[in-house]
């Protein structure tokens, strides 16, 4: 089972000193946002959750720590993952996401042990754009089948670099 | 139907068809179809995901398009779209080509939608024109 636990160990340390932060610079506006305090840089939500809700969570996670293009990439990826869980994965089970070490990590668990696949390169063949998009925009993707428990399922883990 | 609607349908400018779908996730997609100068103008506003593509599908399948040789599709009002938009557009483009018509994306796209085309390598698949 994947480590969908509390995000304590994944929370980056926020420091009012900007200089050596592990998070990459995303613009002068980011400095003011990184204030000390209980900022939540991790989220875990059990179904039901629609793609729109997941996008809102990702937007909130990336506020001030990623540029517009990076945020848009993350929105595209998370939307495809949630939609795939609903459409091909027997429904979403859990969504989790967090920011750590200059990366956005996403975990989407569903109720199917059918693996995602990309379409053939021929665009006339329907289906598969979504998974190809996820693969292209992420720096790492993993699929973990749930082997314990009675119900089939899998967790897709994706990591995107923040710029 | 009022006489003004009939006049519109006889080839003048003006909206001839409009649908608005409330998506299950709280989003909304509104699509309108207008005819002007022998060209069909389809305008989509809102968000598009796999469960909520039918208003645009229906607009691009509308019988009025058969009398035109060019469809301008204005997606500048889409605040988000996933890959279901690409499949829909590719299908429609095939249908257009089969009757020697053109499907053209008119106007700018919001950054996240433009990015969808870019990262999937489908930017070059569609003709573009400014609005």
Tertiary shape of chain B? globular
Q: How large is the share of residues in beta strands of chain A?
A: 15-25%
Q: What's the CATH first level of chain A?
A: Alpha Beta
**What topology, given as strand order, has the largest sheet of chain A?**
1-2-3-5-4
> What is the radius of gyration of chain A?
16 Å
> What summary fits the major beta sheet of chain B?
6 strands, mixed
Estimated helix fraction of chain B: 25-40%
Unreliably modeled segments of chain B: 1-12
Report helical residue fraction of chain A: 25-40%
Rg over alpha carbons of chain B: 14 Å
Q: How large a portion of the residues of chain B is in β-strands, by DSSP E?
A: 35-45%
- Whole-number tally of structural domains of chain A: 1
Task: Based on the model shown, name its key terms.
heterodimer, A: alpha+beta, Heat Shock Protein 90, 4 helices, 5 strands, disordered N terminus, B: alpha/beta, Transcription Regulator spoIIAA, 36% strand
How would you characterize the overall build of this protein?
The complex is a heterodimer of chains A (163) and B (131). By secondary structure, chain A is an alpha+beta fold. Chain A has one domain: Heat Shock Protein 90 (2-Layer Sandwich), CATH 3.30.565. Chain A is built from 4 helices and 5 strands; from the N terminus they run αβααββαββ. Chain A is globular and about 40 Å long. In chain B, strands 1-2-3-4-5-6 form a 6-stranded mixed beta sheet. Chain B has 4 helices and 6 strands, in the order αβββαβαβαβ. Chain B is of the alpha/beta class and 131 residues long. At the A-B interface, α2, α3 and α4 of A face α3 and α4 of B.
């Amino acid at each position: 089972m994947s480590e969908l636990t509390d995000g304590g160990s994944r929370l980056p340390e926020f420091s009012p000193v900007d200089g050596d932060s592990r998070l990459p610079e995303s613009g002068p506006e980011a400095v003011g946002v990184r204030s000390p305090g209980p900022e939540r840089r991790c989220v875990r939500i059990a179904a039901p959750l629609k793609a729109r809700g997941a996008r809102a969570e990702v937007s909130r996670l990336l506020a001030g720590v990623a540029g517009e293009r990076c945020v848009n990439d993350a929105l595209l990826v998370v939307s495809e993952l949630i939609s795939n869980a609903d459409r091909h994965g027997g429904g979403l089970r859990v969504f989790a996401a967090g920011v750590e070490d200059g990366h956005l990590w996403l975990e989407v668990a569903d109720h199917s042990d059918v693996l995602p696949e990309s379409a053939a390169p021929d665009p006339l063949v329907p289906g598969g754009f979504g998974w190809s998009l996820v693969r292209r925009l992420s720096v790492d993707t993993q699929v973990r089948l749930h082997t314990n428990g009675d119900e089939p399922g899998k967790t897709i883990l994706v990591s995107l670099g923040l710029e | 139907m009022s006489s003004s609607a009939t006049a519109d349908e006889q080839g003048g400018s003006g909206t001839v068809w409009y649908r608005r779908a409330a998506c299950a996730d709280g989003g909304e997609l509104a699509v309108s179809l207008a005819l002007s100068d022998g060209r069909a103008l389809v305008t989509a506003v809102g968000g598009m995901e796999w469960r909520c593509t039918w208003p645009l599908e229906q607009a691009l399948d509308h019988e009025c398009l058969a009398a035109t040789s060019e469809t301008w599709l204005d997606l500048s009002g889409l605040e988000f779209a996933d890959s279901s938009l690409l499949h829909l557009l590719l299908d429609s483009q095939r249908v257009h080509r089969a009757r020697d018509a053109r499907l053209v994306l008119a106007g700018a796209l919001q950054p996240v939608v433009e990015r969808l085309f870019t990262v999937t390598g489908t930017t070059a698949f569609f003709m573009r024109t400014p609005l």
